[in-house]
Design a protein that fits this description.
single chain, mainly alpha, 7 helices, Four Helix Bundle (Hemerythrin (Met), subunit A)
Length: 161
């Protein structure tokens, strides 16, 4: 086997292994104890959004192995950041649009937000998996679903900032 082909296969194997193990490690790390030095909810969400935006170009050229690998790496980063944001969900303010629904009940709001974030973690992980397996149609569907969740989240919190 050519050395370049071997490096390519090793890189893909590393990305595949990372896609499966890193989210688990991130979840284990966040389920420990919430420390004051941890990441802020807003920062985590901004970083996840930045990575999701960075996926636009590679998602347009999924026939290219390098683009697929880049998109898979970014999807994995989104998965990790969303998993970490689940722990920090209590930091998020109740949006004005949801004030009547929650009537100041931050615990219920944080629980509902965590449920939504958990769905997004699943979608991001499935996106990464589809990219690694070369399933372009499934990857495109998961990417669109994540972008929709992001837009809905932005729309809900829009009045807060």
């Amino acid at each position: 086997m050519k050395p370049s082909m071997q490096r390519h296969l090793q890189r893909r194997a590393f990305i595949a292994a990372s896609a499966l193990t890193i989210p688990s490690i991130a979840l284990a790390r966040t389920s420990g104890s919430s420390q004051p030095g941890g990441m802020e909810f807003e920062d985590l969400m901004k970083q996840a959004g930045k990575n999701l935006k960075s996926m636009r170009r590679p998602m347009q050229t999924l026939d290219n192995d390098a683009s697929r690998d880049e998109a898979a790496f970014l999807a994995n980063q989104v998965t990790i950041l969303l998993a970490q944001s689940i722990e920090a969900a209590e930091q998020a303010p109740i949006p004005e649009r949801s004030a009547a629904k929650y009537a100041g009940d931050k615990v219920k709001f944080a629980r509902d937000l965590r449920a939504k974030l958990t769905e997004a973690v699943g979608s991001a992980n499935e996106l990464c998996r589809a990219l690694l397996l070369g399933e372009k149609d499934a990857a495109a569907a998961h990417y669109d679903a994540l972008r929709t969740v992001r837009k809905e989240g932005h729309d809900e919190f829009e009045e807060e900032h």
